[in-house]
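User: I'm new to structure prediction. If I give you an amino acid sequence, what do you actually give back? Let's try with this one:
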Amino acid sequence: MQSLIRCGVAFAAGCLPVSAWGTVAVVPSPIALETAPVTGAGNLVAPLSLVSPGFDIVLNYVNAPTAAEAAAFAAAETAWESVITGYQETVTQNHLTINVNLSGIDGVGGTLGSAGPTHAQLSDHFLYATAGAMTFDTADTAGLVASGNFEAVVLHEMGHVLGIGTLWSGANVGFAGYQELYVDGTGQYTGANAVAAYNDEFGQVSAFVPVELGG
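Assistant: Good question. You get back a string of structure tokens that encode the predicted 3D arrangement of the chain. For your 215 residues, that looks like this:
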């Protein structure tokens, strides 16, 4: 069975083999609640008619990127906005603000970056990221830009802020009772829409999307 979600990034192909350049990290919880829960929303697996329209990523640069770095950030933002078009339930905020910090971490070839959500909002069934942070090691960024790999690293880290690998379990970030779609160490992601897409794409009859544990 093929692994659809590698390194926490939900792409069947083009995922980031980060071991070639270094490692990436996930910013740990806690997650702060941005707004009060929204009531009267749709079902756990909502039809398109119940999807709240619109989604926007807003990048807030703590320090100025180079032109090449800015282009990579913009491309990653566009990529995510092209595949996320709304929310399954009614939300009070349809944008995600990400603070971007370019600074030293641990030198060349170590941790390339770290990222994760910092604030979230609740709907009837889901916990959605509303704000987060990404940090990239400036000891590595120039080399990644030169090799054409920086955009892939940014795309990967931005996925963690969105909630990939970070908000799969509400209980893990202090909000039990919301999405419980992954148990650490199992390699089995059980989000219904993802499972349906995985089975359709790869001709499987599976109850979960396999997640690679070694990446």
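You can read the tokens as a compact description of the fold. Here is one thing that stands out. The first strand starts at residue 5 and ends at 6.
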